[in-house]
Specification:
heterodimer; A: mainly alpha; TorD-like; B: 983 residues; alpha/beta; Barwin-like endoglucanases; six-stranded mixed barrel; 33 helices; 33 strands; globular; binds iron/sulfur cluster
């Protein structure tokens, strides 16, 4: 028995006016996206950006514009988000695969990038993430090689989306407070819950400083952002 | 990413216009409205997280699914609930209607592994994309490559190997772990068979081949539907643990017991099935043959046997010469007489009488027969019968017969010899061997003889000991003497499959190699109506021709002996049978020289490319560290095709991600337990970049063909002289474009359309319904030796054709054959069933390692599944008797090193009073990577094999695919255990 599925439109609604440049939602949205990009499987072009400092600069600029201050220990040391000039792409790729995708000892990687691997039950975690996405009119893209709903990059992308729409002044758009409540809940129940656990695992690995710093930053940022959004909601939301 | 790549996103400066860039997420609603049906974008505010659970019990779709390529020896239909391309849960369905009010029905079917497969399919051990090793083998350093690169690399290496060394140096192993009856399994076999590659036959290699059943019956895949167990009033589970290994079927045993059947369990340890029995009998490890012979002793001495049955159905009336110990043959008595004519003693006329229906040697077809040979053979076999037609053969006494040279010789019926043998197995003596009380032995004998229908559930675990064949022969003897076979609820049950003929011919497509007139006769034989049904022996002959002359099937254990260093342990005299004067080495040499046991590449030539799909050789094969040391360096390319990273994948050069069970369509293993063919529809697209195996096979064939044409490769011959053409391998694979990559469902229709068991069913229906009731057993074939008919509403039981219709068994004597007069068997003292102590395979150590299939995984699949680990110790563990543990200072939960002369491993100890003194139990299939130092429990397995099993060209003892060959023997190695500090 097969019942037909809902039609899926791959291109999301980007036609709404963007948030004001440099506004808190725009900046937060950008940081989420940059973090997601850092945790995507690296391609040679992006590796070059990392190596030449482009990625570190972009993140640094975005972090500097945040409406809240990250704890000092959360901020990556200078140069931590770029890689050693001697490191080649293959070594970087191979370490990404070892750390996050395959591991070297069997049974999966030491630091999988899936929320459900850090408690809460994998299927429950995935299903809840899907429910969040669905409630906001989103589905997983159908592109080949699509990721699962609890992958760090998907979750960070969702937060990128929520923050973006929070700041998008669409007349017929949703109430921004709704979006802030969702951000707080999604962070609390998902991203800000498990990213610190991921960071702890990565910290225990012998790996490149880039991965340690990036994951630590993602975890600390998620927690700080949760704190920030909650503080806004405590006074009625939206600022 | 909405037209923006990563670099472009970086390039947008922080102060510039904000950009929404989504790569993983898309809108639920189509343009132009882009207004979701609910949620904040539809004016429904978000209050808190409870809002998202509003429509909790809703899905995008529900799909009929199953655990397609699981070698779980079952088939269960499930409903899969899909939300946004993710299977969020599965549920057993109840689609098997009751067809006979006197029998329990099959609802519901399932097991705990199936119930959490959705969790396993998303495990982080899934492989996402093709991987290429960039460090030394096993270093864990990988590079992501495209399918295109991977296929080109494999194709070129295969072509190089075929050109330089021969096609047999490309070796394919599908093992048994990940196998079904659909296009994905067929696709793997198909591409390699078409190239003339070596195909590893792992049946005996897994240790699943009941050689003693073959020796006795000439067949072994015999079982029926599991509702037939309900027809039994005496069920013996002997060296089996159906509560673990037959989870969806086990209720039939419990229900039979509620109805009044007695359930007996025979195993050294009190396992999960034993606790449901009325009587638990616990012989010492490896002494089951003695127990069986003790029971037979009582049956014979108390004359509890069924004389009419043994006269007709067994070789017990056959005459044996007292001087040579061999059967009296027509060639002995008559000038120009047949070597395969045998005699009985006509009690009424007091003279020799030729035994009717004798089958002789399996050479009636010749090596490469034509259609006429088949027709002639069909006719000759068809009218054979073991019916005695008034002949009353003597089963006792001594007689003198005149030989053709005028001399006289004493002859005796086999039963006379058997009595002498059984005289040494009086219950009191058997007690000394087995530890079982004589009263229990007598009780078993009398109860089996008195039962209306007694059956023995004998698992494949009962094939994994060195002398398993002797146990099986003894158990079959008990059933034969008491007439407990060939009737509902009776007989030995080993497991069988409904024949899916379309699957077999799609897998091993040799039609183009056959003489033109033979091709249609093959199809005809498989689909023939029962009035002209080919006999078991003729089908065996055909299968022998096809799998010995037209494909390079190689039994694993001789292959490992030749290429994988198994000779280092299996060849040690101390690990063999001291009663057999010949060495394994000399038997192996003779067997290979005479081509009794085909090994490709032949000794002296190395395998070069090794591709395995699903199978996990470095988990299962004996002493994996030696395999890595001896075999691995010979291989230029090792490829693992698997949904997940296994211990073997970690040691491969290329790893290709295969789709999981819910990510493709297929036909589940068609075990005869359930009279349905269960199919799985595709619930979700293959995860990440994984591909289904059918597509992998097709794409590989395509790339090989492209590269072969570009490189101007010429057709080549395999070692059997069959010609293969790599320039046409894709055209053949796809049947000239009929079924290409992405078109597995066309292959599915081909399979269904060529399978009598599901005649008339279309894939479009089957995928919708999830199951179809079988129409026919599908006929005697590679996996189906049921020798019984299917009738809707009736339970199926094995050996009906032989017992009821009096058809010959496919043995040399056409009967249940308890006497084997092959010279090696005579020399070893195994012409008749006997008991022998298991060898000290591992050295002189006081404990023996046994094991069994675990309840919590399907071999190594799901061995690391988190829910399953929570139901057990959560790490590799061995079970030890409390006294044995105490003597070694071990307490429950301690870690211990288990070692012998072959190897060692470390595991947690579970102290258990259910384990016999001297026994250590390690349930199977832990991945080596789950052990300290990646040294798994197979490291102590010397796996010596019986040289007798290398014998060939003796009646029914010969090799063809999935038939008589030496076995892997992981059970029973000797070892010692010592405490180690836990770190
Ligand atoms: S894994 Fe096998 S036994 Fe278990 S539910 Fe699935 S098909 Fe049935």
């Amino acid at each position: 028995m097969t019942t037909s599925t809902q039609e899926v439109e791959a291109v999301p609604d980007v036609s709404v006016p963007p948030p004001e440049p440099g506004s808190p939602p725009a900046t937060r949205s950008r940081v989420y996206k940059l973090l997601a990009l850092g945790l995507e499987f690296p391609d040679p072009d992006f590796f070059e950006e990392i190596q030449q400092g482009g990625y570190e600069r972009a993140l640094g600029d975005a972090l500097a514009a945040l409406p809240f201050v990250l704890p000092a220990e959360a901020l990556p040391a200078a140069g931590a988000l770029r890689t050693d000039a001697a490191l080649d792409y293959q070594a970087f790729e191979s370490e990404f695969i070892r750390l996050f995708e395959v591991g070297s000892g069997g049974g999966g990687p030491p630091c999988p990038l899936y929320a459900g691997e850090y408690g809460g039950g994998r299927l429950k975690t995935m299903e809840e993430a899907l429910r969040f996405y669905d409630f906001f009119g989103l589905r997983l893209s159908d592109a080949e090689g699509r990721e699962l709903p609890d992958h760090a990059t998907v979750q960070l992308e969702f937060l990128h989306f929520l923050a973006y729409r929070e700041g998008a002044p669409a007349a017929d758009g949703p109430d921004p407070v709704s979006l802030q409540r969702a951000e707080a809940d999604f962070l609390e129940r998902q991203a800000a819950r498990w990213l610190p656990l991921l960071a702890k695992r990565v910290a225990s690995q012998e790996t490149l400083p880039f991965f340690k710093s990036l994951v630590r930053l993602a975890a600390d940022f998620a927690r700080a952002d949760l704190h920030y959004v909650k503080s806004l909601l405590a006074t009625g939301g939206v600022k | 990413m909405n037209g923006m790549d990563r670099r472009e996103f970086l390039a947008v400066s922080a102060g510039a216009a904000a950009v929404l860039s989504l790569q993983h997420l898309g809108c639920t609603t189509p343009a132009p409205s882009r207004t979701p049906a609910r949620g904040p974008f539809a004016g429904e505010p978000y209050g808190d997280w409870r809002d998202i659970y509003g429509k909790k019990w809703s899905w995008d779709k529900i799909v009929r699914g199953t655990h397609l390529m699981a070698d779980c020896i079952a088939a269960c239909a499930w409903d899969l609930y899909v939300r946004d391309g993710v299977v969020v849960r599965e549920e057993q369905n109840t689609l098997y209607p009751q067809t006979n009010p006197d029998l329990p029905d099959f609802n519901p079917r399932g097991c705990q592994k199936g119930a959490c497969y959705s969790d396993h399919m998303y495990a982080p051990s899934r492989i996402k994309y093709p991987l290429k090793r960039v460090g030394p083998r096993g270093s864990g350093k990988w590079q992501r490559i495209s399918w295109d690169e991977a296929l080109s690399e494999i194709a070129d290496k295969i072509i190089d190997t075929v050109n330089q060394y021969g096609s047999e140096c490309v070796v394919y192993d599908h093992g048994t772990t990940q196998i079904d009856m659909g296009p994905d399994t067929a696709g793997g076999f198909r591409v390699f068979a078409l190239m003339g590659s070596t195909i590893i036959d792992s049946w005996a290699g897994v240790g699943d081949l009941p050689m003693g059943v073959i020796q006795t019956l000439g067949l072994y895949n015999m079982d029926g539907t599991s509702d037939d167990w309900f027809n039994s009033d005496y069920i013996i589970a002997w060296v089996g643990n159906p509560a673990y290994t037959r989870i969806p079927e086990f209720h039939f045993i419990t229900e039979a017991r509620y109805k009044g059947a007695k359930v007996v369990h025979i195993s050294p340890d009190l396992n999960a099935s034993a606790m449901h029995a009325d009587l638990w009998v616990n012989p010492r490890v490896g002494t089951d043959a003695a127990l069986g012979l003790g029971i037979a002793h009582v049956i014979v001495s108390e004359r509890l046997y069924k004389e009419d049955v043994i006269k007709e159905q067994t070789d017990l009336p056959f005459l044996v010469r007292s001087d040579t110990g061999r059967f009296l043959r027509e060639a002995d008595v008559v000038e120009g007489g047949e070597e395969t004519g045998y005699y009985m003693w006509d009690a009424r006329r007091q003279r020799l009488a030729p035994a009717p229906g004798v089958e002789g040697n399996p050479a009636s077809l010749g090596e490469k027969p034509n259609a006429l040979d088949v027709a002639r053979s069909l006719g000759a076999h068809h009218f054979r019968s073991i019916r005695l037609r008034g002949l009353d053969p003597a089963i006792e006494g001594r007689h003198t017969v005149k030989l053709k040279d005028g001399s006289s010789v004493e002859v005796r019926p086999v039963l006379e010899l058997l009595k002498e043998r059984l005289a040494t197995y009086a219950p009191e003596r058997v007690r000394a061997i087995t530890g079982v009380h004589p009263d229990t032995i007598r009780q078993l004998a009398r109860e089996i003889a008195a039962a209306k229908s007694a059956m023995i559930f004998m698992s494949w675990g009962a094939c994994k000991h060195y002398h398993s064949d002797l146990f099986q022969r003894a158990a079959l003897l008990v059933l034969a003497l008491t007439g407990q076979f060939g009737k509902p609820g009776a007989g030995m049950r080993v497991g069988a499959w409904w024949t899916i003929h379309g699957f077999e011919i799609l897998s091993y497509d040799v039609a183009h190699l056959l003489p033109p007139l033979l091709r249609p006769s093959l199809e005809l034989m498989a689909g023939a109506p029962s009035t002209v049904r080919p006999t078991a022996r003729l089908m065996d002959d055909m299968m022998k021709v096809l799998t010995r002359q037209y494909s390079l099937h190689t039994p694993l254990i001789p292959w490992l002996y030749t290429h994988g260093g198994l000779d280092r342990t299996a060849g040690r005299a101390a690990y063999g049978d001291p009663a057999f004067p010949r060495s394994v080495e000399s038997c192996a040499k003779e067997s290979m020289e005479k081509d009794w046991m085909p090994v490709y590449p032949r000794p002296g030539k190395d395998p070069k490319v090794f591709i395995f799909s699903g199978v996990n050789p470095l988990r299962r094969w004996p002493t994996p560290s030696r395999i890595r040391e001896v075999l691995w360096p010979k291989l230029d390319l090792i490829v693992s095709i698997n949904p997940r990273m296994s211990s073997s994948g970690l040691q491969a050069d290329l790893v290709l991600p295969a789709a999981g069970w819910y990510e493709k369509t297929g036909i589940k293993f068609t075990m005869s337990y359930v009279p349905y063919v269960i199919a799985g529809d595709q619930a979700v697209a293959p995860l990440y970049e994984s591909r289904r195996e059918w597509d992998i096979g097709a794409l590989l064939a395509k790339r090989i063909q492209e590269r072969a044409r570009a490189r101007g490769v010429k057709p080549h011959q395999d070692p059997l002289g069959n010609t293969h053409d790599l320039n046409k391998v894709y055209d053949r694979f796809t049947k000239k474009g009929e079924m290409r990559e992405g078109e597995a469902d066309k292959a599915m229709d081909y399979i269904l359309g060529h399978s009598k068991s599901v005649r008339g069913v279309k894939w479009s229906e089957l995928r919708r319904e999830g199951a179809t009731r079988i129409k026919h057993t599908g006929g005697y074939m590679l996996l189906n030796h049921i020798c019984g008919d299917y009738e809707e509403g009736k339970a199926v039981y094995p050996l009906q054709w032989n017992r009821v219709n009096k058809e010959p068994y496919p043995t040399m004597t056409a009967r249940q054959q308890f006497y084997i007069d092959h010279p090696w068997y005579l020399e070893a003292g195994e012409a008749l069933p006997t008991h022998k102590e298991p060898p000290e395979a591992g050295g002189k150590y006081p404990l023996r390692l046994t094991g069994g299939h675990t309840r919590w995984s399907i071999h190594s699949i799901q061995r690391d599944q988190r829910h399953m680990l929570r139901l057990q110790r959560g790490q590799p563990a061995v079970y030890m008797n409390a006294d044995d543990a105490r003597r070694r200072g071990l307490r429950d939960g301690d870690h211990a090193r288990l070692y012998n002369d072959v190897g060692s491993f470390i595991a947690a100890v579970k102290v258990s009073p259910s384990v016999q003194p001297g026994q250590v139990v390690c349930y199977h299939a832990w991945e080596p990577y789950q052990f300290k130092g990646r040294s798994g429990n197979q490291e102590v397995v010397a796996s010596p094999f019986k040289a007798l099993h290398l014998a060939g060209e003796y009646g029914h003892l010969y090799y063809r695919a999935y038939y008589a060959a030496p076995s892997h023997t992981p059970r029973g190695p000797t070892l010692e255990v010592e405490k180690v500090a836990t770190s």
